[in-house]
Design brief:
Chain lengths: 336, 336
């Protein structure tokens, strides 16, 4: 397979943790193309990984769209071009999310017929398979028909990522009955019902509620990028608050600490389930190439997991499958 | 003080748990007016609590607005009328949330100048004071200027409920910088900035993100009722999933169980913080009377806490303070 392009300069722990994750993936047999500055090897040990040179770095706090237009020789833009030009099979960055989306969208383009790409995020579910939530932030405002495409793309993604043959798709709303929610949800409910009747690969189960996000009711949950991003970050913050509260309690006396230490092994599976590093990141679905968005705080292990995840998506040809599933409404649609 | 009207028939454990909670509150010296069917005392022991008779009950799955218009002799409608008519100082129900809102809105009316009432929900924060989140579901769609009123009402509520002299108000968005978010958030950001410049009682700190909901960055977070309801239920589901995962791990072997039993006392404060019953429920702010919305699953203890909470809000005259703070744009505004 073609190598996976890894933005060496994206993320809180770049380039050290990123390159270390890439080296670990290469050691497991995954071909890698690092994208970084010409002097990267003076900063960190890059082993014998090939380097695609890029002279600029987009910082975490820059406006994504503007930065991509201005910094044409940035690691993110060069990584996306490597996928576009057939030098790489996928791109991965733990850097600026907006710029990652913009570079993928502007350089790879959309899949023909896709109205808008979406971020497919993975929500861990203790005691079950994770929930795919999309859009987790690519589009602050959406139209109802985009949500139908998110449902299709999310189903394909979920099938290959988690091996669920017929993922159940829920529409995130405030009440389970049809017709609950705002006008966007009401329209989307109708469109999803029609689309599912017409499409055996789309199992629309109706509205779901917030409590189902970290639950077992649906495998894929579709929503607008504003709500999706708020939900994702609310859960991240909530999990962090509870884990920190638990650790404070466990350490509150030496006796409690001894019992807690003895209990720790029992908690490792739950901890692994909830750890965002386990899944390595989210996928930007709908662009014409595999683009993985890793968490800004990614460690070596998170990057390794993100690379493995990208490889799976490449090998399953998720992009080709989305392309086959989405029929352009308008034959003149030019996603370029 | 006037008695607190308690809907004896609302909630999963009605009337038993509801009446038991009301009896406990009466034993602590809070005057109570039960609202229930004439034969309530044949169903449960109501002690010597006074009963306002109502022949109908609105079920949990009925459409709230329709049910309130049709069931004019329901417990919920009679409870709201008791507040309107000066027979009660507050109403409480653990029943149908939509019908509770509709009965309060239609019978008590809005406070003059308030564009829309909002549900002020309480989000527990381990290691700190809770966050007031509004609107948690009264208005699936909102206008930007309603969010300014939610900020004012939420500040007053937070001040009295949690004794925070100058609550910091955040606008829930997807990025902290001004201008992040959808068009509603952009407009609301501007309006909140202007309102805060003009109003020393409103401390608008800018955008906050999902991770701040269960965090320490803001005391009050304002959003539309769609997002707020999704956030509230997402956290409820997330907390339930994690607690259930913990209990499974703790019980996985007899040895682990012994250590977990020894640790339990250290976890009680965190458990109490996270338990929705601790706060007893949410308040519908903006209607012309105190209306408390208790959780459907409320136990006796949750109802007792909700009654105590209602009493505090009555004694602090939160409704009068909101009324003084909100200046009607339109002197002909008739909230009737």
């Amino acid at each position: 397979m073609l190598p996976i392009a890894v933005d060496a300069m994206g993320g809180d722990h770049a380039p050290g943790a990123i390159v270390a994750g890439a080296l670990a993936a290469a050691a497991e047999g995954t071909p890698i193309l690092l994208v970084g500055p010409p002097d990267l090897k003076d900063q960190v040990d890059i082993g014998d990984l090939p380097l695609l040179e890029a002279s600029e770095v987009i910082e975490m706090d820059e406006d994504g769209g503007r930065a991509v237009r201005r910094k044409k020789d940035s690691t993110l833009v060069r990584a996306a071009e490597a996928v576009r030009d057939g030098q790489a099979s996928a791109m991965i960055s733990a850097g600026n999310t907006g710029a990652t989306m913009a570079s993928a969208l502007l350089r790879m383009g959309r899949i023909r017929g896709v109205k808008r790409p979406a971020i497919a995020a993975i929500i861990p579910v203790p005691g079950g398979s994770p929930t795919v939530l999309l859009d987790a932030g690519a589009n602050a405002e959406v139209q109802a028909d985009w949500l139908v495409q998110f449902a299709q793309m999310g189903s394909i993604f979920c099938r290959h990522r988690f091996g669920i043959a017929a993922p159940r798709v829920g529409l995130l709303s405030i009440g389970e009955e049809p017709g609950k929610g705002d006008s966007l949800r009401k329209e989307a409910f109708e469109l999803l019902t029609v689309a599912a009747a017409d499409n055996p690969d789309l199992d629309f189960i109706g509205n779901v509620e917030g409590r189902d996000v970290m639950g077992h009711a649906a495998d894929v949950i579709v929503t607008d990028g504003f709500t999706g991003n708020v939900v994702l970050k609310t859960l991240e913050g909530g999990m962090r608050a509870v884990i920190s509260g638990l650790l404070d309690a466990f350490g509150s006396t030496p006796e409690y600490k001894a019992h807690a230490d003895a209990l720790m092994p029992s908690l490792l599976p739950l901890y692994a389930t909830l750890d965002p590093e386990t899944y390595g990141g989210a996928m930007l679905v709908g662009v014409d190439g595999v683009c993985m968005i890793a968490h800004g705080s990614s460690s070596q292990r998170a990057i390794l997991n993100a690379i493995n995840f990208a490889r799976e998506m490449v090998e399953a040809d998720v992009v080709g499958e989305i392309s086959a599933a989405i029929r352009p409404d308008d034959p003149t649609d030019d996603p370029g």
